[in-house]
Amino acid sequence: MVRSLLNILISPGAFFADLKGEREESFTWPLVIVLLGGIAAAGYGYLFGEVSGQMMAGALPGIGALVTIFAALGALIGVFIFWLIWTVIVFALSMAFKGQGSFKRTLQVIGYGYLPQIIGSVITVIVAFEYVPRIVVPKVTTAMMQDPVAMQKITATLMHDPAMIEMTQITSIIAIVFLLWSAHIWIFGLQKARGLSPRDAALCVGIPVIAYILFMIYNLGVS
To answer: What is the pLDDT of residues 178-202, one digit of tens each?
Structure first.
């Protein structure tokens, strides 16, 4: 099965053509793929949570470990939420093109197509390991906790740290590259799952992907 899964990366059309022959949707491997992606994302969340924990430690002693754990759990759960929301969006768009397949089949396809995200998340963690130690973390004081303006300024200071900026730019580029790879896979999967033409499947996948990439680019500009 592992060898078959590799076909998702190199020959998604053939993989989903074989998958279409299954009578019942199996979620074993999509769940494994999304879980592995979530674990990798949790690694990045953990590292980023350590930065936030260090920033808050002066005002709230002992908060660092809690922030780190919640950041990691949030990243892990966020991947599963992304899986569901992305499926809903793509499925809804495909209805405009008279897609015929089930929601469960679409959910399965989006799960399989998440495979490149595992690679991207692992690379992101490696980048974070390199950059997080370079970040100069400002310290929040107890007085700052009572002042929203001061909190806003110190957060801006953290986000404008040179190492933080460079890390954010690199990880955003990585996210975009691997999202596009996943989009390529989803297009083939959606053709089979919803009985769409290549053009219609590309539109159903491309619209939310482009919107998300533009949102990421906008956030980079704002930060």
So the answer is: 999 999 999 999 998 999 999 999 9
Query: Could you report the per-residue pLDDT of 68-92, keeping only the tens digit for each?
Result: 899 999 999 999 999 999 999 999 9
pTM assigned to the model: 0.88
Query: Who's near 76: CB < 8 A, 6+ residues apart?
Result: 38, 39, 41, 42, 45
Evaluate the CA torsion angle 66, 70, 72, 73 in order and state its sign.
Answer: positive
Kindly report the number of other CB atoms within 10 A of residue 70's CB atom: 14
Structural domain tally of the chain? 1
Residues 55, 140 contacting (CB under 8 angstroms)? yes
The type of residue at 75 is A
- The residue among 31, 23, 24 whose CA lies nearest residue 5 is 31
Q: Which of the 8 DSSP states describes residue 32? A: H
206-211 long-range contacts, CB within 8 A, separation 24+: 207/93, 208/86, 208/89, 208/90, 208/93, 209/179, 209/180, 209/183
Neighbours of 133 (CB within 10 A): 9
Domain span at residue 112 reads 2-222
